[in-house]
Write a structure and sequence with these properties.
Layout (H helix, E strand, L loop, with lengths): L7 E2 L9 H5 L5 E4 L2 E4 L10 H5 L5 E2 L13
Antiparallel strand pairs: 1-4, 2-3
């Protein structure tokens, strides 16, 4: 089974404004102790909305780049 990849929320940059909570289409984000947190990781569809709408730039979606092996012609 593949690892679940989730958005990373920088707790130092997050002001707890709740924009990501209000606009997450999967309802996977909640405010916990004044900061955004992915509380339902199984529901997160990695759409990128939270990263796009965060006014503080506190959300990042990591991607893994896998290079294909070179093919001899």
């Amino acid at each position: 089974m593949a690892d679940i990849v989730l958005p990373i929320i920088d707790g130092e940059r997050c002001t707890g404004c709740g924009t990501c909570v209000d606009l997450c289409p999967a309802h996977a984000v909640e405010l916990r102790e004044g900061h955004a947190a992915i509380t339902r990781p199984e529901d997160c569809d990695y759409c990128g909305d939270c990263e796009d709408i965060c006014p503080e730039g506190a959300v990042a979606l990591p991607y893994e780049i896998i290079l294909a092996e070179s093919v001899e012609r």
